TrEMBL record:
<comment type="similarity">
    <text>Belongs to the SMP-30/CGR1 family.</text>
</comment>
<dbReference type="Pfam" id="PF08450">
    <property type="entry name" value="SGL"/>
</dbReference>
<dbReference type="InterPro" id="IPR005511">
    <property type="entry name" value="SMP-30"/>
</dbReference>
<keyword id="KW-0378">Hydrolase</keyword>
<keyword id="KW-0963">Cytoplasm</keyword>
<feature type="domain" description="SMP-30/Gluconolactonase/LRE-like region">
    <location>
        <begin position="56"/>
        <end position="305"/>
    </location>
</feature>
<keyword id="KW-0106">Calcium</keyword>
<dbReference type="InterPro" id="IPR011042">
    <property type="entry name" value="6-blade_b-propeller_TolB-like"/>
</dbReference>
<protein>
    <recommendedName>
        <fullName>Regucalcin</fullName>
        <ecNumber>3.1.1.17</ecNumber>
    </recommendedName>
</protein>
<keyword id="KW-0479">Metal-binding</keyword>
<dbReference type="InterPro" id="IPR013658">
    <property type="entry name" value="SGL"/>
</dbReference>
<dbReference type="InterPro" id="IPR008367">
    <property type="entry name" value="Regucalcin"/>
</dbReference>
């Protein structure tokens, strides 16, 4: 069994940081510009755009066809949808802990979901799910966690064990699966800790994947034609402690943005060196995931969680569980790939 202990992720004086003030968040550069392009002191603003308190907000996906953000609340067992011009969050209850959601095809309101140990297709209008696969049958305490669609239209998602106690998980119980267009399933990896955030490089030749229990972001060679991974290597690792890497996304210049749950921040990583290029500090501790969205993909949407905080902590963090929009970063994201099947 493994558990978290120690201090939160410390600040690195060699990175760039964003500091909170009463009027917003500022970019303060203390490191050279990265090779992907200068981000010369942009004005960064952070706004809570969804102010409902989600228990475990996760896996945000920007749906370009509708101009909406789609995400899940794992512990509430819901898939959620919100638009910038809406005052209300729509939600569909699935009856199982839903780890992730992704777009399906070109149709509005069609999604692929991973809930419990099953994969299926959600029709938003009917609120019905067509389940197509069940995995990890021999591990009754596992459930699906994060997932995303690869550049060829396959849905890649990982399973993880439920905690044995708060902050304690049995190691080597997780697997990484790929749902193919014909609805067959390929296992890409096993004996993982907590499979989490994932995305692909801009040239589609590298697959990035978080194992939260290892506090690590790994890079793999990716064969986009076969949909297989190999040659795992460590890209970045947080010091064992309270903060763990969680969800991630890759921007249009290839750098990684990684949410640090219990660290209260997003970190930007250089894909070549693994160095931390900057941090974005959020007003909540349990930062879970992120994605780029908006009309030109220049806004970073960040999910968070309220579960796991004490009543005292919740009083100190009134925005825990909200969804945030970070604007003015000076970089854009990429449209999400839809599942083709």
């Amino acid at each position: 069994m493994l558990s978290r202990k120690g201090d939160p992720y410390p600040r690195n004086s060699e990175t760039t940081s964003l500091d909170a003030t009463a009027r917003g968040f500022y970019w303060r550069s203390s490191a050279p510009s990265d090779s992907a392009g200068s981000m010369a002191s942009p004005r960064v603003q952070i706004q809570a755009v969804v102010t409902e308190r989600h228990r475990m907000g996760e896996c945000p996906v920007w749906e370009e066809a509708t101009g909406q953000l789609v995400y899940v609340d794992i512990h509430a067992q819901t898939v959620c949808r919100w638009g910038p011009h809406s005052t209300k969050v729509q939600a569909v209850h699935l009856g199982h802990r839903v780890g992730c959601v992704a777009l399906r095809g070109q149709d509005k309101g069609g999604y692929v979901v991973a809930a419990g140990t099953c994969l299926g297709f959600l029709d938003w209008d009917s609120e019905q799910v067509q389940w197509v696969a069940q995995l990890d049958r021999q591990k009754p305490h596992n459930r699906f966690n994060d997932g995303k669609v690869d550049p060829a239209g396959r849905f890649v998602a990982g399973t993880m064990p439920e905690p044995l106690a708060p902050g304690v998980w049995e190691p080597a119980q997780g697997s990484l699966y790929s749902l193919q267009g014909n609805h067959s399933v390929l296992r890409l990896a096993d004996r993982l800790g907590i499979p989490n955030g994932l995305d692909w490089s801009t040239d589609q030749r590298t697959f990035y994947h978080v194992d939260s229990l290892d506090y690590a972001v790994h890079a793999y060679d990716y064969d986009v034609q076969a949909g297989t991974i190999g040659n795992r290597r460590l890209l970045f690792q947080l010091p064992p402690g309270r903060a763990m890497p969680d969800g991630l996304c890759v921007d249009s210049v290839g750098t990684l943005w990684v949410a640090c749950i219990d660290g209260g921040k997003i970190i930007r990583l250089d894909p070549q060196t693994g160095s931390c290029l900057c941090t974005v500090d959020l007003p909540v501790t349990r930062v879970t995931s992120c994605c780029f969205g908006g009309p030109d993909y220049s806004d970073l949407y960040v999910t968070s969680a309220a579960d796991g905080l004490s009543q005292e902590q919740l009083q100190r963090e009134p925005q825990a569980g909200h969804v945030f929009k970070v604007s003015g970063l000076g970089v854009r994201g990429r449209p999400c790939f839809p599942f083709l099947g």
